[in-house]
Specification:
The chain contains 4 helices and no strands. It is mainly α. It has one domain. The radius of gyration is 18 Å and the shape is elongated.
Length: 110
């Protein structure tokens, strides 16, 4: 079980690295936030799962932490992105559509 836990933890570390790479390479705050949130959420959960498998006494604690990450990370990322949009931080020029802006304009017209 030690080897299985180590492999799963290594896979989690790879996802965390890819998330960090996405934060560096993406063009604007919204894309960076999405890359960081998705990859690091999965990476953290896999790392914790690997630790729980390698150390069965810690599995319960690791599952609680995984559930906490699963519930809080996407919600906090959404709140931060919404706040960034409401303060006027622009999308990159390569973005095709701003659905939130269109939705907000439709509400003010009605």
């Amino acid at each position: 079980m030690q080897l299985v836990g180590a492999i799963i933890s290594l896979l989690g570390a790879v996802f965390i690295f890819l998330g960090a790479l996405g934060v560096v390479r993406m063009p604007d705050v919204y894309n960076r936030m999405q890359a960081g949130t998705k990859a690091t959420s999965l990476g953290s959960m896999l790392t914790l799962l690997g630790i729980g498998i390698a150390m069965p006494a810690w599995l319960g604690r690791c599952i609680i932490l995984i559930l906490f990450i699963l519930l809080t990370n996407p919600i906090s990322s959404h709140a931060l992105a919404r706040a960034a949009h409401n303060t006027g931080i622009k999308l990159t020029d390569r973005s095709i559509k701003d659905s939130l802006k269109e939705d907000n304009e439709g509400e003010t017209d009605a």
